[in-house]
Write a structure and sequence with these properties.
The chain has 391 residues and is mostly helical. The chain has helices at 2-11, 15-32, 38-44, 49-77, 79-87, 90-99, 103-131, 137-189, 205-208, 211-229, 235-242, 248-276, 278-296, 306-329, 336-351, 354-365, 369-385. It has a single domain, classed as MFS general substrate transporter like domains (Growth Hormone, Chain: A), CATH 1.20.1250. The protein has 17 helices and no strands.
């Protein structure tokens, strides 16, 4: 009992954090078993590379559209309803996605699922931030991030084992089925933390009066655009398939290796953020994450690429934990979800264009072009982040 109490005290393992981390792990493991191969599956269903890029733009936009509304509703109605209700929407959407044989209809189902996820996102950040003391937020987001990282290891690994036997459609269906027990657990065990705002709307004009939020918004836009070109976009899978000649199973395993280093940072990274502050971790991540892919572009085969994926995911996880920690510290309990939702919508709407214009670059200048663009953006991210006063 004493050991468990010390563990909870050290890492901020409150009930809300444990419930979210556990259910996120289950759902995202199912999602990552097939989603990293989505560009290849869209191709299989008849989409050209141009439309694969457009599809990723639409999927990214979908994940942003609902965030501003989800944030406003979260500050009005509380965090829990905006987490629980969308969870139960995943089953019918992924069920339909598993049945369709046309890439346009598949895209429609995935877009709706991402809109449901978007409504949840501001409440995730707020619920975790409000469930632990301010000084433990970096650690809490590190623990939460470890559930994503572990999913990124196990999900692609399971996908590589099951891909040949059951295929992507059944993996999509399994993701939908997992949403039911996760929704029940969230409904029963999550505890509300938010103070319901009595204001009719949050005053967006206040954002323009806060230079820290403006500079950090610029840094966040850059970070999310970089992710759209690397780990969230179609370009890694396409480059690995077309240039390095890896199979779908090998590509999934490459992502699995990256997830291992993300787990490492998630476990220790909260302590790193707590000690060195989120700003320093963010600065390192936004620059070194895209730079880590540069040597990979010139490798041959699966094994040679593993070290660079380990580095890239280490820095991506660091920057992401730092991003959530800084944003939580720059907001208050009454407006946190609204601001998080606004950030998600603005950063997502801008970064959603990246798969489109980067695909144009890829078709014109080759498969390496999106990665060079990500490196250039990393330099821009430094300029914005250096102006932020974390407080």
């Amino acid at each position: 009992m004493g050991f468990w109490f010390k563990l909870k005290s050290s890492y901020g393992l409150e009930t809300n954090l444990l419930v979210l981390a556990g259910t996120i792990f289950v759902l995202v493991t199912g999602y990552f078993s097939w989603s990293l191969l989505l560009p290849l599956y869209l191709r299989q269903l008849g989409a050209s590379d141009f439309w694969v890029g457009i599809s990723y733009t639409l999927i990214t936009l979908a994940f942003t559209i609902g965030q501003v509304f989800g944030g406003l509703l979260s500050d009005k109605l509380g965090r829990k309803p905006l987490i629980v209700i969308p969870t139960f929407c995943f089953l019918p959407l992924y069920f339909l996605a598993s049945l369709v044989k046309n890439w346009v209809f598949l895209l429609g189902c995935l877009v709706l699922a991402d809109i449901a996820s978007a409504f949840q996102e501001p409440s995730f950040t707020s619920l975790i931030a409000e469930s632990v003391p301010k000084e433990k937020r970096g650690i809490a987001f590190g623990v939460w991030g470890s559930s994503f990282s572990l999913s990124l290891v196990i999900g692609p690994f399971l996908g590589s084992l099951l891909l040949r036997s059951i295929g992507i459609p059944k993996l999509i269906l399994a993701t939908g089925l997992l949403a039911i027990p996760c929704g029940i657990v969230r409904l029963k065990f999550l505890k509300e933390t938010g103070i319901k705002s009595k204001e009719k709307t949050w005053n967006w004009f206040k954002l323009s009066l806060n230079p820290n939020l403006i500079w950090f918004l610029g840094a966040a836009i850059v970070l999310m655009t970089i992710f759209s070109l690397t780990i969230w976009g179609p370009f890694i899978a396409l480059y690995a398939k077309d240039t390095i000649k890896l199979t779908g199973e090998k590509i999934n395993l490459l992502f699995t290796c990256g997830g291992i280093s993300a787990i490492f940072f998630s476990i220790l990274g909260g302590k790193v953020v707590e000690r060195f502050r989120g700003k320093k971790v963010f600065l390192l991540g936004v620059l070194l994450h895209p730079l880590s892919f540069l040597p990979w572009l010139y490798t041959h085969g699966f094994t040679a690429g593993v070290p660079f994926f380990l580095l890239a995911y280490l820095f991506s996880q660091g920057s992401f934990v730092a991003y959530r920690t800084i944003l939580s510290n720059l907001t208050s309990e009454t407006n946190r979800s609204s601001v998080v939702g606004l950030f998600g919508t603005v950063t997502g709407a801008i970064s959603a264009t990246a798969p489109w214009w980067a695909m144009e670059m890829r078709l014109r200048w080759g498969g390496q072009a999106p990665f060079w663009a990500a490196i250039a953006l990393g330099l821009c991210g430094l300029l914005f982040a250096l102006r932020v006063d974390e407080g």
